[in-house]
Design brief:
The complex is a heterodimer of chains A (about 475) and B (about 375).
Chain A (H helix, E strand, L loop, with lengths): L5 H17 L5 H16 L4 H23 L3 H25 L8 H16 L9 H9 L1 H4 L7 H9 L5 H33 L8 H32 L17 H7 L2 H12 L8 H19 L4 H35 L11 H23 L3 H12 L9 H11 L1 H10 L3 H15 L3 H24 L12
Chain B lengths: L1 H22 L5 E2 L4 E2 L8 H6 L1 H12 L4 H14 L4 E2 L2 E3 L5 E3 L11 H23 L5 E6 L2 H4 L15 H15 L6 E2 L1 H7 L15 H14 L11 E9 L2 H6 L6 E7 L6 E5 L4 E3 L24 E6 L8 E6 L16 E5 L8 H8 L3 E7 H7 L1
Parallel strand pairs in B: 6-7, 6-15, 13-14, 13-15
Antiparallel strand pairs in B: 1-2, 3-4, 4-5, 8-9, 10-11, 10-12, 12-14
Helix pairs in contact in B: 5-12
Classes of the chains: A mainly alpha (about 475), B alpha/beta (about 375).
Amino acid sequence: MVFSSIPFLFRFLPIFLIMYFAAPRRMRNLVLFLGSLIFYAWGEPVYVFLMLFSTVSDYVHGIWIGKFKEQGKEKRAKAALASSIIINLAMLCFFKYAEILPLPVGISFYTFQTMSYTIDVYRLETKPQRNFVAFGVYVSMFPQLIAGPIIKYKQAATGLTERRETFDQAAYGIRRFVVGLGKKVLLANQAGLIWEQISAINPQALSMSGAWLGMLAFAFQIYFDFSGYSDMAIGLGAMFGFTFPENFHYPYLSLSITQFWRRWHMTLGGWFRDYVYIPLGGSRRGLGRQLINILIVWLLTGIWHGAGWNFLVWGLWFAVFLVLEKFIYSCFHNRENSSRKENGQNTEHTKRKNPLTTVFLFTYSFTVVLAGWVFFSHENIVDALAYLKVMFFWNRNAVQTMKETIYFLLYNYRVLLFVLLIGATPFPAKAAEKIKIMFEKKRAGAVWTILELLFLMGVFLLSTAFIVDASYNPFLYFRF
Amino acid sequence: MRNRLTVFLFGILLFLFSVADIFTSDCFFSQSENRILQQKPEFTMKNLLSGKYGKEYEDYSSDQFIGRDRWIGFKTRTEMTLGQVMINGVYLGKEESLFEQHLSKYAGGDGRLEENAERKLTKLVSDIKQYRSVCKDGEVRVMLVPSAYTIWENRLPPYTASLQFSETDFLEEGREQIERSFPGERIWVDVQAVLAEHATEEVYYRTDHHWTTLGAYYGYTAWADSMDMDVVLAEKLEQKTVSSDFQGTLQSKLNIPWEKDIIKVFLKPDEPMYELIYDMGEKTSDSLYEESYLNTKNQYGFFLDDNHGLITIRTNGTKQQERSIVVIKDSYANCFVPFLTEYYGTVYVIDRRYYRGNVSEFLEEKQIQDVLVLYNVIQFLENY
């Protein structure tokens, strides 16, 4: 089941909310667990057993690891951990890369979560969860089961057994959910229409401006799709008293690729950092080793997204720029340090970049990201290269109608494009905050409450209208 | 306070819609969208396990969602407010005219129309060859009628005209191919030319994808000319308005009230007696028009009782009582066929989407003289 659908919004959700809040506190995990199984079984009636198998397997492994650790049997604990990881990875690899059976929805997300659990237990960062239902909730919790955010067990542990649902949290959750729903249905799907039209044109016939507009539309689609989904997940979690980690922080405004990856799909990056990058030595074993570690992590990040070669290239593409940035940064850093030593001056002012530098860095970073999306959106590498060629070199063979196609799309979607541009920046949130403070200063907080409610209701009703008439409602991150 | 209000308000909103939706009864057919809606899927273990149940239930719940028409209208109005000129595959053109979007493959269309062009023309040529071998003394004519967007190109929204699939190019190619295959014969009727001549008149509906009776009349004059037959002048016909509140298939996609279309019939001063037999005699009638459709959304169904596989029309008192013609057609012909009754004792109307027999055998069996193939260009490329 997807969040942006009538069965979820007007069947599952209300019924589930009643059951959840009518249940006594100690029963709520059971309600959440069973509800999540139904939610998953709706679209994946067979694979729900695969998820249950994974849950049981890691529940048992977690207890074993904890017991062996307690008894000081380090080797056995290690063996149990290895067994858990092998089972998870085997499952993931078989279903994701063998491509014999259809991909179970959400498998990349929940296997990563269960792995974080056994690793955390092994590292003594958390106690093993003896309550099977609580553990089941962690693995299968429907708000974030299908597309994240990926929650590390140590982040979730206390919430599983000791959370309190409050009105404040619920209201926050509603706000997040509605905004996320709007991002998905009103922005991502509409941006998708632009990309759909341009991507249908053969790359050989595309013009340069068409290629850029297409990639821009795709960039908006994937950002609002995925971050909208994360907002909805965080919102639903908040309604049930959970605090999920954030997954996005205006990634397109990054000034470097290093920054981009701290702001895009943050929980996946965090997972790889904690469980791969740092165990490999991170940046502590010299620059050379760090560069290799970066390469490994982004190779894995790439193939996490799918079996296609394009995802591998996509990951490597970023690795190249990350390595480059580390290299340049370390050069500058050393020079700065030595010059500071020589002059004995405070070089703090150099940290404030001048506007021209900012524009340059933004352009650099965004261009690299857009070019990355070309690999991401084209399964065939040859097509991706042809597309990139049009983006960066003039295409003399562009078809006659290209100009009109661009004009038409810009004209028809002019307001939408403007909203997409603004929506990808922190401006709307900041403006809302300012207006709120303004009203509160004038002791007219009620006006703000009404304005906010009207806005949320408008977004919710409009999203419903767009879902009812949906001819186009894909979920991009379902494939992962 | 603010938080409690948010929770209560959204709680009420969610439950109100959900409960109301559960208690509204399902519709089988949507009048406004003119289509059969998804019904509650059958719950079986097989459907559930294959995921079919889940998928169909999702379609079902949005097709049957409470106030569906109003939700779609709400969406359309919002998109119009945002300045969109293309909504749900419909162009919002000048003079309140609506047009179907048929993108050429060079502008991001799926390329199906271009792909089909050659195949369908080849099929047409081979069919004509067959018809001519059966109807040796008769005449075969082909009328491919362009869509509104071709004739009313200047009413399209900015930048869209050159993005559309070019019916003009296709018709040019079609004419060449027919003339090459049948040199020196008059098979091709240039409908585009005659409609373009009258482009300032109401030759198409604004809210529907069909041509009007007036458009069909001009089409008929072109056909009669090519058959060397006398044309009944428009002045001699009584143009009677049968509906002035027609909202067609394009309006359905927007689902908000639009400029109303007028449906007319052209009647002869001395209307003869007709006898119509639908399909294998399942239904008979004495009129070319079916009034009951005017009370439904599908008012165009007024002409020849909507679509049937085979219609037999016998007309008493025509000049050539023994002559007969077969019209192989799509729905564009429904308002055109009445003009033919002037010349034939019997008109057979065959819609190959529903007719399962062999047309050549039919021609032979009934000893037909003339044949007319009449399709809208897009319909021809999609369905012929």
